[in-house]
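Usage

Read records sequentially. Each one opens with the input sequence:
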Amino acid sequence: MTMQDMVNPMLGTAARSAVAEGGFRTRAGPLAEAPLRQRFALPPPRSRGGSCVLAAARSLIGVRFRAQGRDPALGLDCVGLVAVALARAGAEVTLPRDYRLRRGTLPPLALPPGLVACDGARPGDVLLLRVSPAQLHLALRAERGLLHADNVAGRVVERPGEAPWPLVAAWRWRG
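and closes with the structure output:
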C-alpha cells in the first residue's frame, strides 16, 4: 500500500499529489523555510526505527499542550508532538500550518520519506485516530499504551491501555 492509498479519497487530487511529493509541507511562514531538524539543530539519531521515534516522544512527556504548537519550548499539539518526535528520529519534516483535523479531514500534506503504512501495532508507530465524527488526532503507540498531546491534561502524556478512539490509519518509521 502506498502513501497515496492512505490519504482519504475525499480530499481530492491536491492531497494525493502532496503525498506523492513527500514530506510535510506548508505554504508560508518561518517553519516553511527549513525542515524541523534544521530549525532545532537536532543531532543525528543514535538508534533507528520506531524505538527512536518513541524515545524522542518520551523526551517530550510533560511539555504543555498548545493548539497549533510546534515548538517544545512553547507547547505542542498532536501534530507538533509527532512531527518533533519524527524529526528527532531523523525524518526530514516540515510542519503543516493549514491542517483541519478538527473538521475530520486530513490536511493536504505528505508524510516524510521513510514513513510507511502499517497496522499500528508496534511501539513507535504513528496513529491517526478518529476522536469524533468531526475530529482526528495523531498519537504514537507505546509498549503498553498511547503517547499523545492531551488537551484535557494540558500536556504530553503516556497513558496505559488501548487508544479509546478508532484507528483510521497508521505509519511506521523506517528511517
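Summary fields computed downstream for this record:
- Residues 46 and 52 are 8 Å apart (CA to CA).
- The first strand starts at residue 70 and ends at 71.
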